[in-house]
Amino acid sequence: MTAVITPPAANPRTPVKRAGRRGGIAPPWLFAAPALVVYALVMLYPSIVGAGSAFTDWSGVGEQRSFVGLDNFQQLVKDDQALGALRNTLLLTLAIVVVQNGLGLLLALGVHTTIKSRMVLRVIFFAPVVVSPVMVSFLWKYVYNPAPDAGLNAVLNAVGLGSLRQDWLGNPSLAIWSVAFTVIWQCAGYSMVIFLAGLEGVPKELHESAMVDGAGTVARFRHITWPLLAPAVTINVMLSTVGGLTLFTQIIAMTNGGPGYATDTLSTVLYKQAFVYGKFGYSTAVALVLAIFVAAVSFIQIAYLRARETSA
Amino acid sequence: MRTGYRPRTLVLELVMIAAAVAFLFPVYALVTLAFKDPGQIANRPLSLPDPPSTESFGSAWQSASLGSALLNSTLITVTSVIVLIVLGSLAAYFLARQAGRLSYSLYILFLVGIILPFQLGMIPLYQLVNDLGLLGTYQGMILFYTGIQLPFTVFLYTGFIRSLPADYTNAALIDGASHLQAFVHVIFPLLRPITGTVLILNAVHIWNDFFTPLLYLGGSGRETVPVRVFAFVNEYTSDYGLVAAGLVLAALPILLVFLVLQRYVIRGFSSGLKG
How many domains does chain B have? Predict the structure, then answer.
């Protein structure tokens, strides 16, 4: 749940001071040293070694490894499991970004009103966000129980839609969407609270004057609310994209990548390659591809959405 | 937009409540399952438990060793968050108040960590932790979370400190306080709002994390709640009542904390926007 978020200002009234300080007043660099050491040890050094190992045949046992150039990547483009995982990762990400944020926006608009239950509803829709994805996954694994008289199938039967009963996680073409829906159910409330914070920043006066001018609900949403929600859209899309691209826990807990390879993602493949098959070099090559995707998507989104924010 | 309660508002209210009921169906299914004996599970999957049986809870608590898992999770989460707050705020104080190319480059270096997926360094880090003899230890996990969550923590603190006026510290420094004294007595208390956000976001993330504790702690006896639950569910997979009771018990602590602190938690998760 690492998040890319604009840091809040302490107090909007205090003028923002320049970072520059006169000599002698700025704190010594020793203040940053402990953090830098830990960060370098845990993230920078392993990431650099990892990126380097992607070009070796390292087995993970001992130090022995030799440079194999692009062999791992050539293997990757011929590896059906890895290519399928890439496809699954992109499909899952797309579904999660669109549906989670769409639902999150609808929920936010619904509770950003005068309805009496608005506070209770916020708490209900947000609650799954704080629960471990492992537990949410197992909860939904029961809901998706293939037995005809349990979970979702029992509900379908009870409301007379028994013909729609499915093996939700066992059907290779359906499983990936069942997993996506679990993530959406858990995270829609997160999108909702970010949209809510955005909605609270929309000046009431704008809506009031537009209403005086005869603008309807839809017109006001399109021309007032939506453009002002741009920062919330940026944050939500970025968070859900990175979350989707690195999806791991829900897959391992619900399907372990199956049936077959139908729900493997880049994260589950690189995990299995390393810790099941002992191919550490190949695994880090998959990790490097994942890292490039995440970085590229982050950069494109920041650039595109910033441009949208300023033009709106 | 908040203009009184009209018939349209009532319709919206009913629609939203219906959505919440549908949303909560999986939770209803799980909780009722946990209170049912095997006969009820087989014959009446959707009904309320009648009579409710609490037997599964005791055996789930035992089988999943949830007591010690909660202690492990608490220890790792609390210590990691404290270390993160201390290291993160100190570093951010330097980055926000020191002008010049060096501190700016350092700031950017920390930001890189926000978009760097940890999977890239996952295996070399596993080796490193192994070489340091920290696999299966609390220290290994605390070191990991501190390193992984520092970029985000430093980012939040730096933005906040930049928006604070420098006058307070300057005054303290002129009065003869050391930088550390000025930080502890003047700056840190002013950081309370952002420290709240840092605490909540990191605590929820660390408490719920699964991938790394599975790798580092599996089989050590120091497993956190998600790792224990994972092993437990996979072992008793067909005993639905027991599994459901275990899941309810394992999710309860953080849900209770959330319900008590809901305002702060929701504000913490959404606060990024108000900058």
Answer: 2
